[in-house]
Amino acid sequence: xxxxxxxxxxxxxxxxxxxxxxxxxxxxxxxxxxxxxxxxxxxxxxxxxxxxxxxxxxxxxxxxxxxxxxxxxxxxxxxxxxxxxxxxxxxxxxxxxxxxxxxxxxxxxxxxxxxxxxxxxxxxxxxxxxxxxxxxxxxxxxxxxxxxxxxxxxxxxxxxxxxxxxxxxxxxxxxxxxxxxx
Length: 182
Description:
The chain is an alpha/beta fold. It has a domain at 5-127: Rossmann fold (3-Layer(aba) Sandwich). It contains seven helices and five strands, in the order E-H-E-H-E-H-E-H-E-H-H-H. The radius of gyration is 19 Å and the shape is globular. The model is unreliable at 173-182 (pLDDT under 50).
């Protein structure tokens, strides 16, 4: 019997409950699922690849058939390297479908033996995207129901540092700000 290995590629910046939902459900369909973080030099990520990897490894540590890896370049080339037979992709809306369909058809053209499997998120995560999570966090809104606790903590840490920097506290440091008060 053939074992089916799949990859779930993405930027995961940051990982969300929607991502975790697809990982958990995908792990029940495939014998092995590799969460593959794309290193995209053209994007300016909020979290480093290493930070995203640590978060995803912590989030998936209790799922035996899931591993986390990173890659650069074409998804189909990475899939071949790790001997995956399928690509798992989430679709939230019609706009996702149009983009993902183009990608799936191009991937099929480049590597005909590699299948793309589309999965819908749970309804409660159908509107969640990393971009929206970042925006809500940057504006001080609650993201508790959108990301795992670990990711929420990491986002708050990032936002606190950014806020301090914006106010000039990071440049002055605690000793300089104390001297001004004296």
